[in-house]
UniProtKB/TrEMBL annotation:
It comes from the Bacteria. This is LysR family transcriptional regulator. InterPro entries: HTH-type_LysR_regulators (IPR050950), LysR_HTH_N (IPR000847), LysR_subst-bd (IPR005119), WH-like_DNA-bd_sf (IPR036388), WH_DNA-bd_sf (IPR036390). Residues 1-58 form the HTH lysR-type domain. Pfam families: HTH_1 (PF00126), LysR_substrate (PF03466). PROSITE patterns: HTH_LYSR.
Length: 295
């Protein structure tokens, strides 16, 4: 048995006709019939019922069709993987980005990469960090950018950004005007956090618990600009990445940069442990490392 036999059989099964299949694959009908007959003899079963007006799969034919498709798909994946080793002229990969991370760092990285490699397509998936981890484990996306740490038993990790969180309070708040605060100073405050599906949510809660208190969460959101508006309205305080805080109007909120202890906001590119990384995806990882290394 060889792959040609399987592919010829699949063509006949798809078209339900030897004549139409022979036209589609540019092979004479007698040769096609012989190849399929050889496959039947090798397997010891009849795959096609030829007595009807249309060629119909037998029960054995349906079983072989299912497994043949798997084999042919695997071969195509093999050829694609080998082709990835050539120059990065074409390619694609799927990248998971939490909205706050995407807005903070990656529009220019993606744009500059596209300028260098215009035929490589990056499909973006915007989800929270926890969901991105799950999608990677399911094989639904190729790469993700998340807040570290993550489980090193499950993921390969390339750190790219080291930052910390800032405290954001309305100008009328009692802490407004301070240059530095203790995390314990926030014990009785109402927190406005990212939704629980975001790793940033856990970073804040874990930091507070380490200081001996559970934060009182008044609101959760998936959008940093909505969190900002709630703080402006005096609905609570928030801890947000410094890159996001740089977008805020100083006439509306006070951003306090020094928090003791420091809450890290370190980012990494991750993918499934021992998972396949295409040449295009690896090229983007290398490019991002260079960009953030320079920064």
């Amino acid at each position: 048995m060889d792959l040609r036999q399987l592919s010829y059989f699949m063509a006949v099964a798809s078209h339900a006709s030897f004549s139409k299949a022979s036209e589609s694959i540019h092979l004479s009908q007698p040769t096609l019939s012989k190849m399929v007959k050889n496959l039947e003899e090798e397997l010891g079963v009849v795959l096609l019922n030829r007595s009807t007006r249309k060629v119909v799969l037998t029960e054995a034919g349906k079983v072989v069709q299912t497994h043949a498709q798997t084999i042919l798909n695997a071969m195509q994946n093999l050829l694609s993987a080998v082709a990835d080793l050539t120059e990065m002229r074409t390619g694609q990969f799927t990248l998971g980005l939490p909205p706050v991370i995407g807005a903070s760092f990656f529009p220019k990285v993606i744009s500059d990469f596209h300028q260098l490699y215009p035929d490589i397509r990056i499909q973006l998936v915007e989800e929270g960090g926890k969901r991105i981890e799950q999608l990677l484990l399911e094989g639904a996306i190729d790469l993700g950018v998340v807040v570290l740490p993550v489980d090193e038993r499950l993921f390969e990790i390339v750190p790219v950004v080291e930052r910390h969180l800032n405290l954001v309070v309305p100008l009328s708040h009692k802490l407004s005007g301070r240059e530095q605060v203790l995390l314990t100073d926030l014990r009785d405050e109402s927190f406005i956090l990212f939704h629980q599906e975001f790793n940033l949510h856990d970073r804040v809660k874990e930091a507070c618990v380490r200081e001996g208190f559970e934060p009182k969460v008044a609101y959760e959101s998936t959008q940093w600009d909505f969190i900002y508006e709630l703080v402006c309205a005096g609905e609570g305080i928030s801890l947000l990445p410094e890159t996001i805080c740089a977008k805020f109007d100083p006439g509306m909120v006070q951003v306090i940069h020094l928090i003791e202890p420091d809450i890290r906001w370190d980012l990494g590119i991750i993918w499934k442990k021992d998972g396949y990384v295409s040449h295009a995806a690896q090229g983007w990882i290398n490019f991002a490392q260079q960009v953030f290394g320079r920064a």
